[in-house]
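Worked Example 4.2. Consider the chain below.
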Amino acid sequence: MPVAEGNQRKIIEILRILRDSEEPLGAKRVADSLRRAGVTIGERAVRYYFRIMDERGLTEKHGYAGRTITERGVEELSRGLVSRRIGFVISRVEEKIYSSRFDPSTGRGEAVVNTTFVGEEDEDEALSTIREVFESGMAVSPHVSVRREGELLAGRPVSAGRVGIATLCSMTMDGVLLKRGVPITPRFGGVVEVSGGEFSRFTDAISYEGSSVDPVEVFMETGMTSVGEAMEGDGRLLGNLRVIPRSAQEEVVRVVEELEALGIGGVMDVGLPNRSVLGIPVGMDRFGVAMSAGINTAAALNERGIDAPTEEISGLVPFEEMERL
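Applying the procedure from the previous section yields the following structure tokens:
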């Protein structure tokens, strides 16, 4: 049975849920799990996909108990996740930038956030660290949204024994500029060297375009940062670079000033037209803006031995509901 691309994505999500379950699942439980993951389809639709997957040998039916995934299903899931991720990062970035409704002139509207989850016992130290990183100029904002077990954070449920912390993503500025008619091209995510208390240069960078993984998450997970040392004057932190037409430079400066008035910063460098920014060329009739990545806070937590799984550009949170540390 041929399957449209949109339906194939739903099948991949259902296979993922079945793979992560230790028992057979029926249509209702799968539909509930999909809903929590942000995919809204009913039980009837899930049963329809079950029939397709049964025919393809991806699932096995266990009477009224439900389905389990087969070895063939596991293989299909692996292939599907890889194909789904190709180009996924830039698509996710652009979707969140476009969906953002944050307006610095009113201090209201949904802003792009990163989400970090820590153990309940680490909450106070985590919030203290986030404040330290911002005060040192290495993060975007001291504004956070904190949620606890059973509550939703940027659409995701907080699991037992954990505390969810949403922090502002640097892409929040991109969303503001887009709403002001300024075209933005997120170009690179990478590692920035700090020397003598100054942002020196990008030492490593990966293009968002065509990347199947989030560049700054890669650099954080591979331990290439030393945010604590950067806060002292010499180290490495995460940053990203966007490229903008030179005609929009005055508007960009105005937006940066509006954000700073709200306590939102993180700008490393606003370059000149046709000039490199922190060692990266930007192209003809364009200029670049380099910003500290919002997940420098998570990198600092990891450096301090705090288990803090983090997803960058993970969702939207109303800015007016966030609290300033």
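The chain has a mean pLDDT of 88. The longest strand covers residues 185-195. Compare this with Example 4.1 before moving on.
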